């Protein structure tokens, strides 16, 4: 964040002529690595320390394919087990599991070949569906792996930073440090800790964090805590399209505050939260996840919000559009 807040000239002078190491392999980490490699070239290559390889996407797919047709339609969500789905939908998701596997494998094969992941030792251990369901996708900057091949970016795979020395950054299980004059931590932020410390009360801190360290913040409709009804948290639970997902939750909250509908009992809300938690753990690539993601079920989630508010959840015209076209912000206008 400190680096990103610099103006371009200051940032360039900050890294120029230095051995830069970056911890993290999501969007910010890759973007900063590209900038450092442009400034310092192969003379002082930028080192990217990667704990977990990801199925990061190219900026376009072949044949004009829109990834939304594979994962953001009502029909695509039939292949995934959903919270509170009932017997019929559960059987359908089980029956369609080969299709679910095939869609994930199709994307993996393309990304693997496009970015030459095997050559660089960057093939993830988890599936693309796991990646998508964890909201861990990033767009790879154009030419990133070309920089890797020319030597201006070096990748250190499946490594973990444990400390620093005069020579540079120390990695777990390695004796020699990574030579670095400057280390940039592109590792995200601890959202749960920020939320916990809203409260001085240990009791309310436990409400926010949950009793299970592997759980995300327990929020009903990904908005409100059943045991803290005066608190709404918008934007903690991610989607593939965060802006409009947050906006429709704001609308849901406004309708609730206006008395247009009422939430159920604490017991019912906590049961619903437990079902969503079970879904997230089932499809996340990391069973100890600390984030909350509804990307693979964003239509299902929005359907629930619409039903609460008394809206028709089916927003498109015609059978084909309703089931096979991606859902987006314009479907919920008005």
TrEMBL record:
Q: Which residues form a coiled coil?
A: none
Q: What class of enzyme is it?
A: oxidoreductase
Q: Which GO molecular-function terms appear in the entry?
A: monooxygenase activity
Extract the signal peptide range.
none
Q: Which cofactor does it need?
A: FAD
**Assigned EC number:** 1.-.-.-
Q: SUPFAM superfamilies annotated for this entry?
A: FAD/NAD(P)-binding domain
Which InterPro entries does this UniProt record tie to the protein? FAD/NAD-bd_sf (IPR036188), Flavin_mOase-like (IPR020946), FMO-like (IPR050346)
| Keyword line | FAD, Flavoprotein, Monooxygenase, Oxidoreductase
Q: Which family does it belong to?
A: Belongs to the FMO family.
Name by which UniProt lists this protein: Flavin-containing monooxygenase
């Amino acid at each position: 964040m400190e680096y990103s807040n610099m103006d371009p000239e200051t940032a360039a002078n900050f890294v120029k002529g230095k051995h830069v190491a970056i911890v993290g392999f999501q969007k910010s980490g890759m973007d900063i690595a590209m900038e450092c490699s442009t400034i310092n070239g192969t003379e002082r290559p930028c080192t990217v320390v990667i704990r977990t390889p990801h199925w990061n996407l190219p900026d376009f797919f072949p044949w004009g394919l829109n990834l939304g047709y594979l994962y953001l339609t009502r029909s695509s969500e039939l292949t995934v087990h959903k919270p509170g789905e009932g017997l019929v939908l559960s059987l359908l998701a089980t029956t369609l599991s080969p299709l679910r596997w095939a869609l994930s494998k199709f994307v993996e094969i393309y990304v693997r070949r496009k970015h030459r992941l095997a050559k660089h030792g960057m093939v993830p251990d988890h599936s693309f569906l796991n990646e998508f369901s964890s909201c861990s996708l990033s767009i790879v900057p154009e030419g990133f792996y070309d920089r890797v091949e020319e030597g201006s970016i070096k990748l250190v795979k499946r490594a973990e930073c444990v400390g620093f020395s005069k020579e540079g950054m120390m990695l777990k299980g390695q004796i020699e440090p990574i030579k670095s004059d400057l280390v940039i931590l592109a590792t995200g932020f601890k959202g749960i800790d920020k939320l916990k410390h809203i409260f001085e009360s240990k009791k309310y801190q436990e409400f926010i964090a949950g009793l299970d360290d592997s759980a995300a913040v327990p929020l009903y409709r990904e908005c409100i805590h059943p045991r803290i009804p005066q608190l709404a948290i918008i934007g903690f639970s991610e989607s593939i399209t965060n802006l409009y997902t947050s906006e429709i939750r704001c609308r849901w909250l406004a309708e609730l505050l206006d008395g247009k509908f009422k939430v159920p009992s604490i017991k019912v809300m906590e049961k619903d939260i437990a079902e969503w938690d079970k879904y997230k753990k089932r499809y996340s690539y990391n069973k100890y996840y600390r984030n909350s993601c509804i990307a693979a079920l964003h239509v299902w989630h929005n359907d629930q919000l619409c039903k609460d508010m008394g809206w028709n959840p089916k927003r498109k015209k015609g059978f084909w559009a309703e089931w096979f076209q991606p859902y987006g912000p314009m479907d919920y206008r008005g």
